């Protein structure tokens, strides 16, 4: 199994889409920085108007960690799902499209082991990208904007009775990387879903587009005011609930429920992918 995972990692490592995503992320950070600088202190004005939120020298809190947190959200809510869907969609459907998969499975290998090795390889690559993106966000933010000993964490519109959390630099760093770990786990559920559709379709583009569409449809439905009953179980909602890690005290029950829901998504679609891959007639 480890040898097969290494083989899958070698195939994923040389794909050009990895370098394209890194370049897109750096471009995204450059635009974020320009927007961040142009906004100056105006970012906090809405808190003064809507929350009676007053602190002197608010610009002092617009530091590197604040920038990293702001950049972290779209990185893992938009960029990473696209990357994971593209990588996982290519592992089966892409090789089937190229004609290399039929030769690979013709040898004395278990199809279940082949699919699981692809899943674990995608997970490892996803984790490495999560670490890379989180570290780059932080390094660029700190290098350009410095660090404030007191951190303001914005949690508006989350309906937990807390809009701003104040904490020290050490606690903010710990929760920042805890959020990264949460996102890496939640993205693995998306990878399992993509693997399933990758076994259903014979083209990589069909599997990738299907999963990205499902993810963003789930995201839109979660934002609708009449979706309260189903919102906690929607894929996008449980995937993007890393903000819970910034609350004090930590809502452990909600975190465990989210992780259990993600695990069900992951196990269910991975099992369906294994069954489909064993049943499928590769052409």
Descriptive overview:
The protein has 283 residues and is mostly helical. The chain has one domain (2-279). Helices cover 72% and strands 4% of the residues. It has ten helices and two strands; from the N terminus they run ααααααββαααα. The chain has helices at 2-13, 16-39, 45-51, 64-98, 100-105, 111-145, 169-200, 204-223, 235-239, 252-279; strands spanning 150-154, 164-168. A two-stranded antiparallel ribbon has the order 1-2. The chain is globular and about 65 Å long. The chain starts with a helix and ends with a helix. 35% of the residues are buried.
How are strands sequenced across the largest beta sheet? Answer: 1-2
Structural class: mainly alpha
User: What would you call the shape?
Assistant: globular
Sheet-strand content, in percent, reads: under 5%
Total of domains: 1
- Parts with pLDDT < 50 across at least 5 consecutive residues: 156-162
Order of helices and strands: HHHHHHEEHHHH
Figure out the total of helices. 10
Distance between the termini: 25 Å
Output mean pLDDT: 83
Radius of gyration: 21 Å
Main beta sheet strand tally, sense and closure: 2 strands, antiparallel
What is the tally of beta strands?
Answer: 2
* Helix content, binned percent: over 70%
């Amino acid at each position: 199994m480890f040898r097969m995972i290494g083989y899958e990692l070698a195939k994923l490592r040389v794909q050009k889409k990895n370098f394209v995503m890194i370049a897109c992320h750096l471009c995204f950070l450059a635009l974020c920085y320009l927007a961040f600088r142009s906004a100056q202190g105006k970012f906090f004005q809405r808190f003064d108007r809507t929350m009676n939120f007053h602190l002197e020298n608010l610009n002092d809190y617009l530091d590197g960690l604040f920038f990293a947190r702001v950049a972290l959200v779209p990185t893992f809510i938009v960029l990473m799902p696209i990357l994971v869907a593209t990588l996982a969609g290519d592992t089966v459907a892409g090789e089937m499209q190229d004609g290399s998969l039929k030769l690979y499975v013709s040898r004395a290998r278990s199809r279940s082991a082949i699919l699981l090795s692809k899943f674990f390889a995608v997970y490892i690559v996803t984790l490495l990208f999560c670490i890379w993106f989180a570290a780059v966000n932080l390094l660029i933010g700190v290098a350009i904007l410095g660090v404030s000993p007191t951190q303001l964490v914005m949690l508006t519109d989350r309906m937990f009775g807390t809009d701003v959390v104040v904490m020290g630099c050490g606690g903010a760093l710990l929760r920042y990387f805890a959020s990264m770990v949460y996102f890496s786990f939640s993205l693995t559920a998306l990878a399992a879903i993509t693997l399933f559709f990758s076994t259903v379709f014979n083209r990589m583009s069909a599997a990738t587009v299907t999963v990205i569409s499902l993810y963003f449809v789930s995201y839109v439905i979660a934002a609708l005011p009449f979706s309260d009953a189903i919102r906690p179980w929607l894929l996008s909602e449980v995937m993007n609930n890393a903000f819970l890690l910034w609350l004090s005290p930590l809502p452990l029950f909600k975190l465990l429920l989210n992780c259990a829901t993600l695990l069900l998504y992951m196990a269910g679609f991975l099992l369906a992918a294994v069954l489909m891959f064993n049943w499928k007639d590769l052409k």
